[in-house]
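User: My advisor asked me to double-check a structure prediction for Coproporphyrinogen dehydrogenase HemZ before group meeting. I don't want to rely on an old file, so could you generate it fresh from this sequence?
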Amino acid sequence: MIKIENESQGLKKSIFEFFRMKLPKDYEDLNFDIKIKIEDQNVFISIFGENINSSEILRLSDEKAHFAIKRYLFDLFSKEENFDPSFGILTGVRPLKLISKVFEGSSYDESLKILWDKYRIGNEEADFLYKIYKNQEDLRLNSNLTNYNVYVHIPFCPSRCLYCSFDTTIENKGKMDLYTKNLTYDINSYELEFSKEPNSIYIGGGTPTSVGFENLEKIIDALINKFGKTREFTVECGRIDSLSLEILNMLKDKGVNRISLNPQTFNEEVINKLNRVSNKDFCFWFDRARELGFETINMDLIMGLPGEDKASILDSIKKAIDFSPENITLHTLALKNGSKLFENSYHNTEDFGNLLEESKRLLMENNYEPYYLYRQKKSVISSENIGYAKKGHASIYNIVMMEELENIIGFGLGASTKILNEKGKFERNLNSKKS
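Assistant: Sure, here is a fresh prediction for Coproporphyrinogen dehydrogenase HemZ from the sequence you gave:
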């Protein structure tokens, strides 16, 4: 058990999170005491316990104490067998939000030095993050307080996948009709304070297409009537068992120019154990979407699903590349509260080796560039979730949402509205998760 002696709950939480992220396999078995005392620009820290006894005075230089403390702990524990050095001392969801400030103010070589000296991020990882930053640069330069984006949440699915932790409702005609009625009322009655059209509209879930043709058309019509045209209009069509030719044609006719078709894995043995429909008809639906001329098709894959090994995951990535969608998003399985896998205490013992490095190389060799990244806790391989895009197809919504660059207006259960104030800080308003 780790015991931390310091009056700041925030600092203690930050250190606990550091150990949970850096030593995920050993975290619960760690046993030592840490004493921390901060005076002026000095941090007095000592750590003692089984097989460890170390003390140091850390001198602060215009930075928060937890950065200096975590650098010290990083150096102290980095030789441990199961230590995860990825992202250095950063443990947050949005590493690029902080790191981008380094790239903005320094040359490439200077940035790499700063990222190691301050955050213990190695050169190879820093270079990958720099690629993402450069692929976001145009959008970053053109973002401002007057830009906004719209998110609509549809909490329905044909079935509940074993890895899903969302508040998802299985298809129910009465509930879907009532939800659509209330949702379109909220959209129609919203008092819009922006004078121009949105940068992007994103209908996510759940599986938006599971509400059926009529309900989905009503939702899209309400959005068009309220907000007008947009540069990027995304609808998640993730489950092929929710699709029809009628729905795909309607989406294209309404101006939707980006859709997601999400196989998650092409390993049929794995998919059949997830309470999810087979992908045997995936090619049919992908080809229909391609024939209709959607500008951007995204495909999601999840790495680390039960029963999958490294070779199986790489095979799924190769099959996704063969389809040649404009976007491929790689998620690592996260065991979250509320999912059946979490409730069943699923534990992954597979050795994935250098899977992440190979997946990055494979995608970039096939002209997919990383354009956004976020991290999740309780991931079975690594915390990274990375969006890749062919040139000119990076998703506006994914970038501005993840990097918190622009205003987001959220509709539907659990959706969050985030409005930037003049200081560049978000004022959040989270919708209820209960109907």
